[in-house]
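Proteins fold reproducibly. Consider a sample protein:
=====
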Amino acid sequence: MRICIAAVGKLKDLERDFVDRYVKRFDAAGRSLSLGPLRIVELGESRAQTAVERKDDESLRVLRTVEGCEFSIALDEGGHTITSAAFAELLGKKRDQGVARIGFLIGGPDGHGQPVRETAHAMLSLGAMTMPHGLARIMLVEQLYRAATILAGHPYHRA
């Protein structure tokens, strides 16, 4: 199952180092599990006048990026929180159901617009605290790697 992350905003060098580290780990761990490769597409922030216009513009571009994905998950502060084990189970189920591509959507500073809210198959939250989008991306790729290790029975996840 191929995985795409469509994210609004550009990472700083230190953030990119962390993301790259976990992408490499995920791709290596996921290969034998039919997970991956993981592709990340960065989209620039909208320059629209209002927050609503920015969110809608960014949402449409994010959705275009993951066109063709049979399942999409938007990261949103109002989404459901789940455990790492439940996240791994979700990925494993989607893979086993024959989902060939899954997309993760990370909005800009204003959040997701209605196009994403109406289209995403699931909304997940990485926690109740607000965090920078770069950190959210790091946490997502680490959780993808963790999910692969859980599915593989690797001791990285010591729960």
Notes: The longest helix spans residues 133-152.
